[in-house]
Amino acid sequence: MRPSELRQDLISLDWVVIAMGRAKRPHAFASSFPFVHDAKETCPFDNLEKFGNEKPVLQYGGKADWTLKVFPNKYPAFMSGFADCPVMLPKGPYNTMEGRGFHEVFVLRDHYKQPAELPVARLHELVHAYAERFRMLKEEGCVNYISIFHNHGRSAGASLTHPHSQLIAIPVIPPDISRSLEGSDRFFAGERKCAHCTMIEYERKEKSRIIFENSSMVVFAPFVSRSAFEMRIFPKEHSPHFETMSDREERSLAEALKTALHALNKGLKNPAYNYFIHTAPTRDHSHGYYHWHLEIVPKTQVWAGFEIGTGIEISTIGPESAAKFLRSFV
Amino acid sequence: MRPSELRQDLISLDWVVIAMGRAKRPHAFASSFPFVHDAKETCPFDNLEKFGNEKPVLQYGGKADWTLKVFPNKYPAFMSGFADCPVMLPKGPYNTMEGRGFHEVFVLRDHYKQPAELPVARLHELVHAYAERFRMLKEEGCVNYISIFHNHGRSAGASLTHPHSQLIAIPVIPPDISRSLEGSDRFFAGERKCAHCTMIEYERKEKSRIIFENSSMVVFAPFVSRSAFEMRIFPKEHSPHFETMSDREERSLAEALKTALHALNKGLKNPAYNYFIHTAPTRDHSHGYYHWHLEIVPKTQVWAGFEIGTGIEISTIGPESAAKFLRSFV
A62, A254, B8, B132: which has the highest count of C-beta atoms within 10 A? Predict the structure, then answer.
């Protein structure tokens, strides 16, 4: 039996396990359910007047031929806006805070076409809208972090099948981001280099885990993947801040995203997935060693007791095999 | 609309969100699928000879009337045993290590009776077996952490419905445990108290989140719950080490576990869940401020892009409502 391999992340110092003895072939991870679309007739995003959505905060295209609209979420996880910045409210030994912020929905026009199936121009628009709303909301005084994400498929938590992304702006820095910022700072203190730049350099040298590359972006299955078929898109040029991308970089990102999602869609037969952007906090500008990126995490495995109890994922496919397989669909 | 509440964990300093504006009633979390048992005829645990399992490393009861058997896992996530302790093998900028350790399966006799349905005496035996195997494996020179867990239901990652727990002994301290140990030390340095003892004291004073209590154990839905209907069982007396429990404490734990799982089973109609034990590392005895406990995490919500991208869970039920509901089934 081939032994398992433990691999330690450069930034979080977390361990993952690649369980070679339990290894599966790439096809074994393909989605076994057909993707069933919600009825267009009752989809709130196809019947905006009927469902009484508010006026969009951003719209691309004209009244009739709009291509993208951004709305405040009707059921926000964080109550909208700030009267004053929320303060720490102690409850017994704990700190609490009023959960205020902004929660927006980016609605793509076509009910049936997921990002993997859209032309690069549409994804360029989507990425541009992310950055535009990010820049707008970071000016709100109490926002400390802005998370942008996209859920595809019910098992990835999408409550509607109509393609849509979301943005949540919150007054605290999330734990996973804090750890990445600290880890990036710690790595820089030791190595005098950006940890993410070191990862990118290693992956580009090794080549085995690279899936796609264009002028500004590189897509790879990281050496320390937490999930099977996980992909990350990095800008090759160091930058902590997603929202400062040039138009050329936005276009590169759109092409990289399209290519990665298309490969996933074809290779694993339209699996459920989440993608999200990791970028530096909006207000604290001391994190120059952070390097923004986009992570694509397909729902290929269930986290069971060991993963939930330890934070160590047992992968049954190595990122090398996953990347080789995905590359064949690029 | 009721605002959401952000709550910060005492130990990890992680934030969770209780989204009051999206709040659901407890019944909305009930499992919507009937639990379908695997066929007993083809279950490997009911046909041990046929499937050629190895000799048990532990057995309670006689040859014919055995009640519990512990086997090495046939498909281990970590290759069995150590020739020498694994060493760090650098690969480019990364550290790797051979994934060796021990992976065992605790098989309960009855194909159909999950822990929630077993008499306390059977769970006492199970808990006793956990501690016995833990004490045995911690003597193995290269083991640094031992994780004990139980998966129930396919959506919680159980590949067989026959009730069984698992133990994985590994050469590294998992990230979630490292963070809890560091957090416990940090809290003690500031407050001169065990953080977990502070939590227990607060919950017992507040009462609203307590689900069950007996002579040695207390079960509550923590003020900072990461998942809806999450429960934790804590020994009231401070101890970092699970495996040093007295027989009386083992019996108390079995009763608390039975009560908690029974309430979950009745209240949420046999949902999928994971439970696992968090305890101090086996070799490093500097963590006297850690306090072992057992966590029960039902699969009530899907982690989507925001949760995976930030580590902040958006709960749509508060632990107060969850505890009140679960208490009614005790």
Answer: A254
Chain A residues with CB under 8 Å of B82 CB are none
Window B:109-128, CB contacts with A under 8 Å: none
Pair of tokens at residue B80: 């069995």
Q: What share of chain A in percent tops pLDDT 70? A: 99
A174 and B311: CB-CB below 8 Å? yes
* H or E segment and range at residue B60: strand B58-60
Higher pLDDT, A79 or B202: B202
Cα A124 to Cα A114, A250, A258, B213: the distances in Å are 14, 6, 10, 57
Contact B92 A19 (CB under 8 A): no
One-character DSSP codes across A81-149: --SS----EEETTEEEEEEEEEEEEEEES-SS--GGGS-HHHHHHHHHHHHHHHHHHTTSTT--EEEEE
Nearest chain B residue to A196, by CA: B93
Closest-CA residue to A159 (of A10, A296, A22, A38): A38
Helix (H) or strand (E) holding B309: helix B305-310
- 8 Å CB contact of B311 and A99: no
The 10s digit of each residue's pLDDT in A67-102 is 999 999 888 888 888 778 888 999 999 999 998 999
Structural domains present in chain A: 5-22+35-327 (3.30.428.10)
Q: A8 has which bridge partners?
A: A15, B95
CA distance B195 to B191: 8
Q: What is the DSSP letter of A66?
A: -
Contact map slice: A 280-299 vs B, CB within 8 A: 295, 297
B313 touches chain A (CB under 8 A): no
Count H helices and E strands in chain B, helices first.
Answer: 6, 15
Residue A208 C-alpha, separation from nearest chain B C-alpha, in angstroms: 13
ipTM surpasses 0.85: yes
Contact of B23 with B2, CB cutoff 8 Å: yes
Active site residue: A164, A196, A278, A291, which one?
A164
Mean residue pLDDT across chain B: 93
Subunit contact A304:B157, Cβ cutoff 8 A: yes
Q: Count Cα atoms within 13 angstroms, Cβ side, for A75.
A: 10
B52 three-class SS: coil
Q: Name residue A20's amino acid.
A: M
* The two structure tokens encoding residue B233: 């069982």
Q: A198 and chain B: CB distance < 8 Å anywhere?
A: yes
